Structure formats: C-alpha cells, structure tokens
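Our platform keeps sequence and structure together, in a single record for each protein. This encoding replaces a full spatial description with a residue-level series of whole-number codes. We quote a single record here, exactly as it is kept in our systems:
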Amino acid sequence: MRLNEETGIQISQVGEGTPAGRRFAGRVAVVTGASRGIGLAIARRLISEGARVCVTARKPEPLAAAVEQLGGAGVAVGVAGRADDAEHRAHAVRVTLDAFGRLDVLVNNTGINPVYGPMTSADAGAAAKVFDVNVIAALSWTDEARKLGLGSQDGAAIVNVASIAGLRPSPGIGVYGASKAALIHVTSQLALELAPRIRVNAVAPAVVKTRFATALYEGREQEVTDGYPLGRLGDPDDVAAAVAFLASDDASWITGQTLTLDGGVGLAGGLG
C-alpha cells in the first residue's frame, strides 16, 4: 500500500494481493456509457482481466442491472448521471476512489447521435448537444480524472471511443462524424500534453451490432454486411478487445493513435 498524496487515499500497488497473469490485476477503470452495448462489453473485458470498474450511464435501473451482470459490488460500482454534467463526473470519480482506492484507466465511451440527415439542415442546438456529449464531456472527464489521481501511478491510460465516421464522410450522420473527428484530434492533442504519465489513444469502429447503431443496418443487415471483407458486422466484444489492448501495458509504447476497427470495409472505400 502507499498514500496518494493528492487524494489522501491509501492505494494498492498493481498486482498486490491479486492473481498474476491478468493485464489489469489490481487496476481500476472508469467506463462511461456502460449500461449496455460497447461500454458494457468493455467493462466486462476489463473485469475479466482483473480490473475493478466504475460504470456510468444516464438511467439508474439499467446501470444497476449492468453492475449485477458484471459481478456486483466487489468488482463494479455504478454512478448514474449525464456525461456532460460536471457534478456527475466529479461524483463518479470520487465514488471510484472511495470504492477501489485508485484510478488507472478512463474509457470515454459515451456518445449520442440525435441528428440524422444533411449537416446543412441540422438544428444548431442539437448539433451543439452532440459536441457537448461526444467531445467536450470526454475532455472534461479526462480533466476530472487527472485532477483526482489518474497518472499518479504507472500504467495510466485513456481510451476514447470514436467512430469510422470521424475518419471520412458518412451519409446522414455528418454531425456525429464531425464530433468523432474532433474527438480523434482531442485524442492526439491530449496524448502530447499528458505524456509521459498518461497514454491517450482511441478506437474508431465501423458498424457494431448495438441498439445505438440499429438504424444503420436494421432490415438490411445482409446488404450492409456484404460490404465488409471479413463477412460480418462488428460485435461489442471486438471493440472491447481493442480497448483492453490499448489500455494495457501491452501498448505501453503507443500513444496518440486511433485504431480503426472496420472489418476491412474501408479497404474498398466503404463507409461502414
């Protein structure tokens, strides 16, 4: 054990009192937007490799169910609230420290897309909300986590969940894509500013089979899948595996990068 001088909390060393051979043994993560889909899969993967995790989401009931699915209070806590709410962010990080005594990994997964159609006809207020949640909130989560101890021990990492839509234009989701492009730039900028104590990377998935992405494939899944050289759409566990790699010491010499997860759809210029 040692004292975190900034928070005054006793924290365990990585691997202290935990089984060997798991990349996140003794480590603690916050995963935002994690009551279902990609966020829940990421939390599950981190826990399977030894982490303890705080998960967040807007609605308390699904979040409580997610905590139970993850194994309960011994390995997971849930804090409900809006990602773009400053009080919620501060509360979530403090709950994490109170429950588990440290913070090593932040996964900014929360994202919204209430705007569909041409960017030229997008409602300005709705577009601003997309950027508030998808970009500014991720930046603010990073600031909150850093102020309360992220980076005070070795192995600290942030992984942002962006999108293939942030890498090239995609019909109908231009505002969302623009926000994810901004998040990708934020990723590289933070990687520069937070090195060497904190590594910052991102993943950019194509279509993943979640409720969030249903409109992109529902009723025409085979048609969409035909554009993917690997012959299938993404699964939340595909994203979780990539996030776990980037957050782990296996990626200890990687920062400022965005890993494309697209089943090969981009090889022929597909949009996913």
Observations:
- The radius of gyration is 18 Å.
- Residues 37 and 212 are 8 Å apart (CA to CA).
